[in-house]
Amino acid sequence: MNTPITRRLFGLSVGAAMALAGGWAHAQAGQTVRIAFMDPLSGPFAAVGQNQLKSWQFMAEHFSKKNAAGVKFEVVGFDNKGSPQESLNTVKAAIDQGIRYIVQGNGSGAAAAISDAVTKHNERNPGKEVVFLNYAAVDPALTNERCSFWHFRLDADTTMKMEALTSYMKDQPEIKSVYLINQNYAHGQQVARFFKEGIARKRPDIKIAGEDLHPLGQVKDFAPFVAKIKASGADAVVTGNWGPDMTLLIKAANDAGLKAAFYLYYGGVTGTPTALANWTGGPVRQVSIIHNGLPGIQGFQDEFKKRFNDDWYTGQTYNGLAMLAAGMAAAKTTEPVAVARAMSGIRFQGFNGEVEMRKLDHQLQQPVIISEWRKATPKVPYSVENTGFNFQEVRTLPPYVASTPTSCQMKRP
Hints:
Radius of gyration: 21 Å
Largest sheet: 7 strands, mixed
Strand content: 15-25%
Mean pLDDT: 93
Shape: globular
Distance between the termini: 40 Å
Number of strands: 15
Structural class: alpha/beta
Number of domains: 2
Number of helices: 13
Order of helices and strands: HEHEHEHEEHEHEHEHEHEHHHEEEEEH
CATH superfamily of the largest domain: Response regulator
CATH topology of the largest domain: Rossmann fold
C-alpha cells in the first residue's frame, strides 16, 4: 500500500518525530519492539478482539517498513477474555516473555486492572518498566483520579465524546425526547450520566424518555428493551453499546420497525454495520475519532479488506504506532522510561490530523467527529462490511472544543 495519500500521512508523522529528535535517531535502529495485545480473543466479543489484533499487526507491518526511529514492530496476541482478573495473568505472561509495551482497549475494567498492575510492577522493578497504550477503554477515571505516568490513552474518553455528541444534538430541533440504553458497567453507566449532564446544560427542554442498563454480553434478545423504547415515544436513542450488544440492539430495533434516530459510540465495530445494512429507522449517527471520508483512510481500508476480508476501523492503531515511533526517535532508545518521558506531551501527525498527548494526564487531544450512516458515494466510496454504506462526516469538533479538564495528579519517575 503506497498511495500518494498514505505516503503523505506517513511522511507527516515522520517529519514531526524528526523535528522533535533533531534528526534521525540511529541508536535503536534495527531493533524489534515487541508489543503485547490484550483483549478478548474468545467468547462473545472475540470477533471484535480478533479484528483489532489484526489491525495492530497490520499497522505494525506498515510502520516497520519505515519510521522515524528505524525500529521494527511485532504485535503478539494475548487473550484476556475481557476479564480484569484474566488481564492480570496476561500482563504477567507478557512481562515474563520480556515484552515492555502493552496495548488494550476493550473494557475499562480490564484497562484499570492493567494500568494498576503495570504501575505496581514498575515501582517494584526499576530497570524493567512497562508502558501501557490504552487504545479504546474510555473511562474518564483512567486519566483523572486513576491516572498513571505509564498509561497513555489514544481514544477520546467518554466525556470528550459526549461533549461533542451533545453539542451536535442540541442543534437538532427534531429531538424532543431521548431513551438511554447501555451496558451495565463503568462505560455504559458513564455514557448515561454524562449525556444527562451535558444535554441538561445545552438543551434542558429535551426529555429523558427512559433509561436501561443491561448485563454486558449476556442479552440474546433485545426485543423487550426495544418495546420499552417504542412505548416511551422517544425520537432518539443514545447508546454506548459495542460488539454483539450493539449488533443485536440494532437488529431488534429494525425488526420492530422503530423509527427513532440512533446516536452511537461504536456503530462501526465488527458486526454492527451488517445489522445496519437494511436499516429502516431514523438517522444513525456516530461519535468517534474516525470516519470513512478522512484523507488516507481509503488506502488502509482497501488493503486491509484485500488481505483479511475485514474492515480496518480502529484508527488508534495508526496513532499508537506513530506516537511510539516518534517517542523512540526523540528518546533515541526503545527503553520504556525514556520513551514514556518523550511521549508525555508529544505532538505528532496522526491519521486524523495533528494531535497531542497531553502531558498533564496522558489523554490524547484530537478532533472528535460526528458521522452519519449513509450510502457510499464517489467521494466516500468505501463499503463497510460490503454493505454499500459507510459513516460520513457531518460535523468535526476541533481538539480545543472537545477537550475536557482533568483532575490528574501524576506521579512521575
